[in-house]
């Protein structure tokens, strides 16, 4: 765990209490929003997004209040005016909660099984995610391409976690090509995102540690005329290098993370 998370957290009993309070609020808000979601059906997609995104706004605020876990973002200038494919490091549930706070209107590529989770899946279904049946083999890729091109054409960003699973800081898994295939087929750039949330919200952990998650949005990676494998190799290289630096696993040469260069904390927005 990073130095800040190790040295600034309170005693274990207080950690457990704060984490329990957060989970209670998260569960309660999920039930409330899910039960209210049928009332949103008459609205268009953007109207539903504005309402449902208040769930992430509340829980980002609640995470700060209960667990003292904030975040700060650099690289917002790399978010292109046109909808693109965003590929993000996947270390915990934190990014699935907070990405909605600083990425334009978006849909996620996810496992179809998640739609069957009571309450959480019901609310998610309302937002037209790209739900893929991983057991479908090649048909899964066709599903993702069809739905992904539709969402991009509607002006919605497509968020992909290319590892397909959560990983611990320093852990490596093979990046899946689906997001790169969609980017190549659409010609839209890939926006890579690195962060160090795994230091404070560890994979599979009940406890949440106080501190500040650093998020870095990278420059657009062009896709037109390129092969998916070439695109993904560049994406993975950038994400892994920047994630290692943000997690303190390698020296960080980036001036973007120098003192005073970070944008204001946005957890309380």
UniProtKB/TrEMBL annotation:
Q: Which UniProt keywords apply?
A: Acyltransferase, Membrane, Transferase, Transmembrane, Transmembrane helix
- Kindly list the GO molecular function terms attached to this UniProt entry: 1-acylglycerol-3-phosphate O-acyltransferase activity
Q: CDD domains annotated for this entry?
A: LPLAT_AGPAT-like (cd07989)
Segments traversing the membrane: 20-43
Q: What range(s) does the Phospholipid/glycerol acyltransferase domain occupy?
A: 84-198
Q: Which GO terms describe its biological process?
A: phosphatidic acid biosynthetic process
Stretch list, region Disordered:
248-269
Pfam families for the chain: Acyltransferase (PF01553)
InterPro entries per UniProt: Plipid/glycerol_acylTrfase
**Metabolic or biological pathway, per its Swiss-Prot or TrEMBL entry:** Lipid metabolism
PANTHER family with a match to the protein in the record: 1-ACYL-SN-GLYCEROL-3-PHOSPHATE ACYLTRANSFERASE
By what name is this protein known?
1-acyl-sn-glycerol-3-phosphate acyltransferase
**Which organism does this record belong to?**
Ectothiorhodospira mobilis
């Amino acid at each position: 765990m990073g130095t800040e998370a190790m040295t600034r957290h309170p005693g274990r009993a207080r950690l457990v209490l704060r984490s329990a309070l957060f989970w209670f609020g998260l569960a309660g808000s999920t039930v409330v929003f899910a039960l209210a979601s049928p009332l949103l059906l008459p609205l268009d997609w953007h109207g539903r997004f504005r309402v449902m995104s208040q769930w992430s706004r509340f829980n980002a605020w609640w995470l700060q209040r209960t667990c003292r876990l904030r975040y700060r973002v650099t690289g917002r200038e790399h978010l292109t005016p046109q909808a693109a494919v965003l590929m993000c490091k996947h270390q915990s549930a934190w990014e699935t909660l907070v990405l909605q706070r600083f990425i334009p209107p978006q849909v996620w590529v996810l496992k179809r099984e998640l739609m069957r989770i009571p309450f959480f899946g019901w609310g998610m279904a309302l937002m037209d995610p790209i739900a893929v049946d991983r057991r479908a083999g090649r048909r899964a890729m066709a599903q993702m391409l069809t739905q992904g091109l539709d969402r991009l054409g509607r002006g919605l960003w497509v968020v992909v976690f290319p590892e397909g699973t959560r990983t611990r800081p320093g852990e490596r898994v093979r990046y899946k090509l689906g997001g790169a295939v969609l980017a190549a087929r659409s010609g839209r750039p890939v926006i890579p995102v690195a962060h160090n949330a795994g230091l404070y919200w560890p994979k599979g952990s009940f406890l949440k540690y106080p501190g500040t998650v650093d998020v870095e949005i990278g420059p657009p990676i062009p896709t037109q005329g390129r092969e998916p494998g070439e695109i993904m190799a560049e994406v993975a290289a950038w994400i892994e290098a920047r994630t290692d630096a943000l997690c303190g696993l390698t020296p960080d040469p980036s001036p973007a993370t120098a003192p005073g260069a970070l944008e204001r904390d946005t957890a309380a927005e």
